[in-house]
Amino acid sequence: MRVTVKPKGTIVIEGEVVLCDPEGNEIIPPSFQRPGHVKLCGCGKSRVRPFCDGSHKQDEGQAV
């Protein structure tokens, strides 16, 4: 697995990973995310958190 943090906060996870909520339930990525290539929101603006939906592209700011 490889984890990369992009300048505007997007966290890219490449490889097999299972994301779980605080209760241990699996969080299924939205259909627009590629299998084995998950992007997590780091700006706090995504409408599909914890996943990135590209909302950070509308802002010139940095990650929160």
Fill in the keyword field for this structure.
three-stranded antiparallel sheet, about 60 residues, about 20% strand, globular, mainly beta
Explain what you see.
By secondary structure, this protein is an all-beta fold. The protein has one domain (1-64). Helix content is 0%, strand content 19%. The chain is built from no helices and three strands. It has strands at 2-5, 11-14, 37-40. Strands 1-2-3 form a three-stranded antiparallel sheet, with no helix packed on it. A hairpin with a 5-residue loop joins strand 1 and strand 2 (11-14). It is globular and about 35 Å long. The model has no long low-confidence stretch (mean pLDDT 89).
Helix content: under 10%
What count of helical segments does DSSP give? 0
| Rg, alpha carbons | 12 Å
**How many runs of DSSP E, i.e. beta strands?**
3
Strand content: 15-25%
